[in-house]
Design goal:
Chain lengths: 193, 102
């Protein structure tokens, strides 16, 4: 019963928050809704017994990724609404609606693969974090190390890409450009007069 | 009907994936496109964990972990590229920064 209530609360909350993320015109609203939706998604992981994954979702997604987005938004102007030119909005809704319908039909069909055997079954009597660690450091050790290397490469790439011309201020130069434009206009008007 | 089975989670995951797909299709701002891809990655994570829970298997959670790692590095590199693009063009709109005709 509790699972039922919790599932539907989390499901409705995530759907609404992600719809806000996708439909909103304001970057700040979209980012806040995305962060809230990710908190709600960690609730599903706790419901499914994947405690460690839920905590990682909270720390990595809500803590790190959204903080990174928040920092990146300081480079862009987040206060003004973004203008987007939609060429064919009804087609987009039609396609994604058909996709959603297809998914629902596919997943509501009875599960066929009943004969699938668990490769790394959940061990009884130990916590989820311990079980995850045992599988992660035995069977998935090489992917784990490769993921660590990938994160290192991504960190270096991020530093190099974002760190170039760090002393060059975007907003300041735009302001100076605008001032120069205004001065040029004034000069032109004086010249005409 | 009060039982929450694997199908509930899979249908929810499909719906969230469709929401993300709708975002990818209709968004023109690059930052918003990134948000939409995050939605899609999260939807897939739910499906992996639900199926892993259904079969009593930990592999589903493992794949969800690696997806989170990939998403984190994607965000790091992608945001760096976004900043470079914004410095170059002064906008993140796909119609503005598209340089190829067609």
């Amino acid at each position: 019963m509790y699972e039922f209530i919790a599932f539907y609360v989390f499901a409705i909350a995530t759907t609404i928050l992600f719809l806000i993320t996708v439909m909103s015109k304001n970057v700040l609203y979209a980012m806040s809704a995305l962060a809230g939706g990710m908190v709600m998604i960690s609730g599903f992981f706790f419901l499914l017994g994947a405690d460690f994954l839920g905590v990682v979702q909270l720390i990595v997604y809500v803590g790190a990724v959204m903080a990174l987005y928040a920092f990146a938004m300081m480079f862009f102007d987040a206060t003004k609404d973004i203008k987007e030119k939609h060429q064919n909005p009804s087609l987009v809704f039609l396609l994604s609606g058909l996709m959603a319908l297809l998914f629902v039909v596919m997943f509501s069909a009875p599960i066929i693969g009943d004969n699938v055997q668990a490769l790394y079954p959940v061990v009884e009597g130990i916590g989820n974090a311990q079980a995850v660690g045992m599988v992660l450091f035995t069977k998935y050790l090489i992917p784990f190390e490769v993921a660590a290397l990938m994160l290192l490469v991504a960190m270096i790439a991020g530093i190099i890409l974002a760190g170039k011309k760090m002393d060059y201020s975007l907003t300041k130069c735009e302001a100076i450009d605008e001032e120069m434009d205004i001065e040029a206009i004034i000069k032109n008007e004086k010249g005409e007069a | 009907m009060l039982e929450i089975g694997v199908n509930h989670y899979l249908i929810l995951s499909g719906l969230l994936f469709s929401i993300g797909l709708m975002g990818v299709l209709r968004r023109k701002n690059l930052l918003m496109l990134f948000f939409a891809t995050e939605v899609m990655l999260n939807a897939v994570n739910i499906a992996f964990t639900a199926i892993g829970n259904y079969y009593g298997d930990l592999s589903g959670q493992m794949f969800a972990f690696f997806i989170i790692a990939v998403a984190a590095s994607e965000v790091a590199v992608g945001l760096g590229l976004l900043i470079v693009l914004y410095k170059k063009y002064g906008s993140l709109d796909l119609d503005v920064i598209s340089s190829m005709k067609g």
